[in-house]
Amino acid sequence: MAATVKSEPLDSNGDSLSDQMATKMKITEPNDSMKGHLHYFSFKFPDKEDQNKITCNSPCSVLQALETSSKFCELKEMTEKQKMKTRQQEKTMQRQDLVIQTTKGKKPIATHFPCHLLENGQILTISTISNDSGEATTEPTQIYTGNKQYVIFYIESKGGKKTKTKQLLKNKKLEPFSPLCIYGICGETVETALTRDGRFHDNVFTKTCILVESDSDPASCVEMNVLVDCLDKQTFKMILEEKNPTQAATAPPQAGSNLQKEDETNSIQLPMFNTSTETSAAGEPPKKQLVTVPDSAEILKILRHQFADLVKQMKKRYKKKKYSGVLSHLSGEFGKSTQGFSEVYTVKKLMRLSDSVCMIDVEGVGQGTGFLLFDHYILTNAHLFINDGISYVDGNYQNILAKVTATFNKENPNGSDLKVIEVKSEIIDFQWGSDHYNRHVDFAVLELQDVDTSNGLLRRYSPDPKTGGVCLIGHPGGGVKRTDPTTIIERERRGEAFQREIGNNVRMDMLINTSIEENKVKYDMLMNPDNTEVTYDTCLFHGASGSPVFDESCQVIAMHTGGFPYEDEGVKSVIEYAIPLLTILEDFLIKMKDRNNVEILTKFTREALTCPHLHDLIYNFIRHLVNEWKPSFSAALTAVWDAVEENENHLRIKEHLRTWIISEKEVLEKIEIAGNEALKEFMLKNDLVKLPQ
Predict the structure, then answer these.
(1) Is the pTM of this model over 0.85?
(2) What segments bear the compositional bias annotation Low complexity (predicted)?
(3) I need a surface site. Which of 268, 437, 465, 619 has the fewest CB within 10 A?
(4) Helix (H, G, I), strand (E, B) or coil at 46
């Protein structure tokens, strides 16, 4: 279903783009099919008059659409090489940001700007600017494909009062391209839209910043917690509000107030309903009665004393100057991260995808969850096959030493419609511990005896977002299939998540601290600033290991793996985590290469190339084979390349490889080394290099 756009497409007076392509394959936004989504636009470079047309038939970002053009990639890489040469001459290490504008305006848009908001036939001019800050000027985000309403508004790059000494943009060289074009989704706040945009400096969010509508009389002010719905087509200037002293929300009660009276009476009267079923003679409903809570004054004083510290802490956490700002932030954020999972469209989509989720039963060991990845192969956690220190796989991780079944359609409590499939004893891949990059791994890829191959979730992959809502689907406790929408706990707030659980009472603290000590390796892993795991709080515990984790666009981002459980009137957990699916796929490809499993490499590559977010994975894997070349890699390289050539995007991948090979002197030297004849033959046959005449 096409996304509903409240704002009209950008006219020729305002569009542009900023971001850079990475050498490694870029993970782009989700790109589901959208019925009726078909439009085109053109692009050009400032020093060239030629215009190149782009046709887009599915929802994506503007940058993602541009990257489908080999001409864009070629011209951009050429521009970046020229900039690199200049930087080397000047001995600087500045990064370059893309800026894409319409031919008649200077209103740069973010790289993740939804392409369908462009006017059909729009012409974009692409240029680059240096970035002295070293900070990325755009944030990864997702293109929404559901029934979303968008608004477009503009913010001038130079602010008003109190901003002359404050930096508003991460990259100051973007200031001449004013005003910046911002898109928002109806129902979200201005702060959310600006945070997603990614081009604004931290000053915008740490100071008390408000927007003032340009040329309005009297001045129309918009605070950061205001919804974007009413801002369509308006232009604003940022100002920083004075730090006015405000009356504390915890000020003592004024004379004559109800709270003061409550103190004097040493008790509080709470309204309660009379639960009697009797009615009056007139048939009136039961009335409220006041019930006195004895000795409540002391409790009230303690709460008031603690409240002041709580407000101070929350102001610091949410970077607000006023208590009213904290309240607005909390009310705006509450439920927002998971509200997408209450939409019928999203729920139906998840239900269809849940058909790929199964319960894994390891006879004599326990249960867990898994899901169909591609073809006949399922993905689950490796720790399901280890119990009380005993491993139920052989020493070489080649075979399972217990009977394993996968049960699909376990949804009805009466047990109907079950589909139980045996799992082959031969292990495709089994990795548990740390990988070559010192990342935590805990996964097993197994083969089913028979299954419908049309529902694999590999093609539903998306890079994991750093914030927002997620949904787990699994079989906790070996029971029926369940879902649990929850919210990502950002990396920098994991410590807070642990601290929130501690301090309730001595017994609880002891249980939680014991759990942390027993899982010290996991705790240190999650607290590492470079850790890539996805963390959240879920009610799916034992038996849910191996569950797929979906983002708000119903894309698979990770596999639920574990947490920090403790017993307190049932099993509870402090925080849970999932391994990013990309980590698993990277390690899986390397293992298949080491085992020279050409059949699986071919199947995997064909399926992966149906997902736009996995094109970079295949591209980087080919680069890995060349960089680490051994004659034994020949069959794997040929198998992957043959599968690539079957795909309609093979020319783009081929062009990237050719550019990379030409720029890497070591690669050109490698193919001339004795013993690397197979690599040289592959390069020449596929026109990736041309030897001098």
Answers:
(1) no
(2) 245-255
(3) 437
(4) coil
